[in-house]
Amino acid sequence: MSELTQQSCEACSADAPQVTADEKQALGKDVPEWQVVELDGEEQLQRVFKLKNFAQAQAFTNKVGDLAEAENHHPAILLEYGKVTVRWWTHKIGGLHKNDYIMAARTDAAYGDMQ
After folding, report:
1. Is 98 in a helix, a strand, or coil?
2. What are the DSSP calls for 43-65, one per residue?
3. Burial class of 42 by CB neighbour count within 10 A (0 to 12, 13 to 18, 19+)
4. pLDDT digit string (tens) for 37-51?
5. Handedness of CA 20, 3, 46, 89 (dihedral sign)
6. Buried/exposed code over 89-112 (b: 16+ C-beta within 10 A; e: otherwise)
7. How do the residues of the chain divide into helix, strand and coil, expressed in percent and rounded to 5?
8. C-alpha 91, offset from chain centre
9. What is its EC number (predicted)?
10. Average pLDDT, the chain
C-alpha cells in the first residue's frame, strides 16, 4: 500500500502550484496504473477499473464518492457495466496537485479492498 494513502489532502487555493515534472514522476511511482491525460487543456490522472458486473462497479463508484466527500475533493467518474473510469485533478488550479495523487492512491486501495 502506498504511503500516499496515509496523507491528507491540503486545502488548495486558485494560486496553489501545480506539481512539477519531477514531482509527477516521483508521485507517479506510487500510483503506476494511473495515466496522466490532458482534457480541455488540463492534466488529469485517469485509471479504468475492471469489475465483475454493474452492481460491483456501482458499489466501487459509491466508495470513491465517499472518499471524495471525506476530503472535499471530487473526481469525474464514469460508471459502466463492469467498468469504472476515474479522473482526478484539481479544478481550482486547472491541473494536477499532490492531492490528486493522494486520492488516486486511496482509490487504488478501495479497489483492492473489493478484490
Report:
1. helix
2. EEEEEEEE-SSHHHHHHHHHHHH
3. middle
4. 999 999 999 999 999
5. negative
6. bbeebebbbbbbbbbbbbbbebbe
7. 45, 25, 35
8. 13
9. 4.2.1.96
10. 94
